[in-house]
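Checklist before submission:
- one chain only
- standard amino acids only
- sequence pasted in full

Submission:
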Amino acid sequence: MNKEEYLEKEVEKLRKKIKELEKENKELEKENNEIKKILTLFINPHTPPSKQFFKKKVSQASKKLGAPLGHKGATRKMPQPTETVKHFLTNCPKCNNFLKKLLYTEERIIEEIPEPQPIKVTKHIIGFYDCKNCGVVTAETSLPKEGSFGKNVLAQTTLMKYDDRLPARKVANTLNRTFLFEATHSTVLNIVQRVVKAVQHVYEQLKIQIRNFFNVYIDETGIKVQGKQFWIWVFTTLTTTLFVIRKSRHCKIVKEVLGENFQGVINCDGWETYKTYKNNNDKVLLQRCWAHAKREVEAVAEKYDEVKPLFKWFQDIYIMVCKARESEKPIYQRTKLKEKCENELRQWLDVTKSYKELKIVRTKIENGFEHWFTCIIHPEVEPTNNRAERMLREQVVIRKITGTLRNEKGTTANETMMSLITTWKQQNKNPFLELRALL
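Returned file contents:
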């Protein structure tokens, strides 16, 4: 074999090797793209903290413990004693010597709960009478309409299930430990259904009331019902909250709750369905959530240093919007402030055209451009949708505990009781007293 033949053979080997490496590179690129798609489920601006498995954790050693400077502490008030118990001696407990002189006393206030008490079982004999004028009449009672459980049992059991977020088995255990009341988990579920039936009319009233508010905050999150995908929708105002659980994430749910005559402002995220909702005037005012937009721009800035100045600029625009909203100026001056903020955001959008990293976020912001500044003209409207997100947190915790709702009865009970309990808390009312009164 001469030198030329040898070189040609080696070149051929290298060509084959290059082809193998190119093939391997393509396979690795494909695998890398698939992994990136999976990671976006866990690393994105909308991922809640509980699912951010890959987020860099801050060392506790680097964090300063305790309340921040200037934080106003809260001390629990000492209640007034309901009885006084004196602990005095006449003889020494060690040598039995008679004690003549009391040197001093010390006062301590102890709060204690009663020991578990057996349940109170009462027989009620209700009289029926024959009235010449009215026919058969009966003596009035304040008893529940059906069943053998009293109002306190019904109210406490239901609140343990939804306000305390206890599974039915845990509710039964707590009732037994606290009140010596024996119940099975199926008894607990039957009690809940009885209460839901009794308060259903109040839930329907909430649906009517929510339509009369000028500003409604709306959000939704997924939940499983019998293993299938459903959605928990929240419609909340300053004083009222309504939950509905539906299989759809379409605007027909918004129309179902708000109706076709809603004349107010809807606070929402960037989900397209809100833009498709129309009332009889074919126009609904929306306020897009600045917090969502900021998170998305920040997520891009964390990956690319060249985007960081643009994120700072976007934050400044948000501050501009907040100051314009909070200014106590008449409507015609607010319109000018709105135009100023709009021009600033347009400039930001023009500059970001050359940044392909911001293409997706920029498109979202541009598509909803007319919905970013409603809060300037209507200062009672907040610039974010955080209010709705906060109201969904309890539902998210319940979702983590239960995993899935079992049936239609469970979905009705959840949306009904969570709506009433949340609304009562917003109105600074005692859920136990309110629920007991309805029973």
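Reviewer check: DSSP finds 14 helices and seven strands in the chain.
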